[in-house]
Amino acid sequence: METGISGIDISIIIGYFVLVLTIGFLIARNTKTGEDLFLGGRSFGWGLIGLSLFASNISSSTIIGLSGAAYTTGIVNSVYEWMSGIPLILAAMIFIPLYLRSRITTIPEYLERRFDRRSQLFFSGVSIFSTIMIETAGALYAGTLVLQAFFPGLGMWQTSLGLALIAGVYTASGGLKAVVYTDAIQAVILIVGCGILTWILFDKVDFDWGKIVGNAPEGHFSVVRPLDDEGLPWPGLLMGVPFLGFWYWSTNQYIIQRALGARDIRQARWGIILAGFLKIIPLFIMVIPGAIALTLYPDIPNGDAVFPFLVTNVLPVGLVGLVLAGLISAILSSVDSALNSSSTLVVIDFIKPGKPDLTDQDIARYGRITTVILMVVAALWAPQIQNFTGLWDYLQQMFSIVVPPIAVIFLVGVFYKRANGPGAFWTLTIGTLVGILLFILGEMDLWPLHYTINVGVSMLISVVVFLVVSNMTDPPTEDQIEMYTYRRGLVGEGMEGLPWYKDYRTHMLVLVALIAYILIMFW
């Protein structure tokens, strides 16, 4: 089969770039204020929210990481995808109404109002670091790997900078609205491109699922793995995955910013549940292809090379351009979201409080400048990821350090009204230090537990710190409790007068049933 980039492929890719940049610049004409740049003027409907959530999350690092993991260790890491519906449901039920009622622009602003300024700055700083150094750099690294499969002469840092520049240009110009509209297009391209590749791979095995399973090692298609499993041991499935998912989908500015830009609570909740359904798709068009490759091509040298290999060796001329456009879509949708959310955090949480006289136009200008600076930082860090053993491990190990204390102060802080500012601050501080310590001990082979189990250990320590410090210090004020903690009626807020088929709680039950079915099928 002929491989490589034909004139047709190049035309598809160029056409895609032109479309994305055109949309960004057209939207930029009406992006004049800080709210326009950071929240799209709070104008998004549920369809745009759901598609943008999906596209921003499904980066090229996700595609390459999941396909590679399915090839080397099995499909167990797919649980991070299709089980995302559970934390998304929690976000729709509890946290979205709290955020929207507060009229916040950043999630750390919520912590300032619920706890204190120290917690806001700590969380915002950690969020900026993790988004740029983990999310954005990981997406750029994976995207560069893809392009190097087609153009072996490309340099790592030059390509990373080029990709970051493309995403940064329309993000700095059009803000969140440009991000969301381009994400919606990118989501469709991504699903179509990966879907075609999956269909071709299934055709090569005569659509015989038994042949795929029969050629795989024992347990390769099971998501409940032994305690000594290197990919995801069963305690990590219980202790790590749910809390990593909660942090990502309920407290991460990178994700939640779309919901903050919703027209109202109904649109936000419908969009979030739509994203939960869309998150089931990667199991079939990104994970399963990696598992099929084990049957068809058992000699691929490493996991990170699996998806680029499939594109260059399976697809005919013409379709290579479509899938490559989809992969570039995944790169840009992750990078643009990360840049926009991080610049929002920098401006709203750090710059604006020190310059209270800033106009809306000044805030937008600072946001654009910050976007460009962060774009360069991520591009320069991306090449360093190649020093880690695998992209997926890199992402998840970094998250296992920062997530536990953050998840604790949100989960406990919303439901336990005695939780206060000192408790939140010291939980963030001590919990993060514990995560770093466990990571270092693990790297030195002095700590035997898998990093997903470390999440559970750090969570437990963080809960103890939060409760002890909160009860040893002054209680929060009534305003901090009344406006920013759980109350009766929160789950049904905004759903009054709707027929049952429009109620997000009905959609939620269907989503839970689908997730349960998949869990049983791949037990």
Helix content: over 70%
Largest sheet: none
Mean pLDDT: 86
Structural class of the secondary structure composition? mainly alpha
Give me the CATH architecture, please: Up-down Bundle
The Cα radius of gyration reads 22 Å
Query: How many beta-strand runs?
Result: 0
Count of the domains: 1
Oligomer: single chain
Looking at the structure, the CATH topology is Sodium/glucose cotransporter
- Our count of helices gives 23
Distance between the termini: 37 Å
Features:
mainly alpha, globular, Sodium/glucose cotransporter, 523 residues
What does this structure look like?
With 523 residues, the chain is mainly α. It has a single domain (7-521), classed as Sodium/glucose cotransporter. It is 74% helix and 0% strand. It has 23 helices and no strands. The protein has helices at 7-28, 34-39, 46-57, 60-72, 79-82, 85-102, 107-114, 117-150, 156-204, 209-214, 234-239, 241-251, 253-260, 265-278, 282-296, 306-314, 319-354, 360-381, 391-415, 421-443, 451-472, 478-482, 504-521. It is globular.
